[in-house]
What does this fold into?
Amino acid sequence: MLRSFKRYKCSLLTFALLTFAFAGLAQQHTSIEPGGVWTDNRGKHIQAHGGGIIKYKNHYYWYGEERAQGLDTAKRYVSCYESTDLMNWTFKGDALQQADPENLGSHWVLERPKVFYNNKTKKFVMYFHLDDRSYKVASVGIAVSDKPDGPYRYVKSFRPLGHESRDIGQFIDDDGTAYLVFEDRPYGFRIAKLSADYMNVEEEMSLIPKHMEGGAIVHYKGLDYAIGSALTGWDPNPNLYATAPSLKGPWSEFKDIAPPAERTYGSQSTMMLKVTGTKTTTVLFMGDIWKPKTQWDSRYLWMPLEIGEGKLWLPSPQSFSIDVKTGESKIVSQK
Ligand code: DGJ
It folds into this structure.
């Protein structure tokens, strides 16, 4: 009797362990499916819209707008996810949970958060677009943390170099220098260097006189490539790119990154991520497929770019895998 009870307990335990193991396995992603529902370690749709990524101590951190249903509507949330392979992401919580910091009123806006790690101050500095409901404030907000996943503490807001700033993008050059890309509605697309402590925007590199948002930059084999989207609200449009020998320009004409009729395959640029490994370098296009009426269900369109010698092209989306050690990416299925 006692022996069979022990055996029963033992098989229950084995069953529980196996269930756990399978649940764990089920969450493992071996590829990225552009436009699909991308789940985190909890099996929940990743909420990191209009986001940005940094690499810190061999871990990637992905920050973005947390737009899950059921959150306190008076607050705005910036989520943080951690990964070592860019395909599997662990939810680290909401790095920033912010109540209206500047009396902006109901429906105030916090969009496109980007985090920079400052090696000198050892602080993580988060920039975001801060606005009122009519997008008239056009400023950036800054919040700071000692840890990558927060909590971040709101510090201040300002207009970078005194200019209007709506969509922001981040660029960290190969030498570690940090830049903010911002959309200045009256003039165009600005790229500016952050101050030594990252608490300010200090020096303008370029004003590209083109009305573009969703700005993203990557440095690849001696050239800077800038991507931007037209100003069509949440609706997709054909994103464009230009190149320059340095951030100061001169910038080339803008060209299509994909067939214009595809409207960037329904997405809008938010960042380009350079993955350099032992064998090669892959540059990933990171875009948002916005669903304005059901923002929590907005998707991500990540795809390895064809890039080099002044040309950049976003291939038609297909599932792919990426190896962060070798830098190689591989198409795993045809859509
Ligand atoms: C397009 C921007 O890129 C988004 O970040 C957001 O500001 C929407 N416009 C709002 O319409």
The two ends are 57 Å apart (CA to CA). The first strand starts at residue 49 and ends at 56. Residues 2-26 form the longest helix (25 residues). The pocket of DGJ is lined by residues 50, 111-112, 167, 213-214, 233-234, 268 (CB under 6 Å).
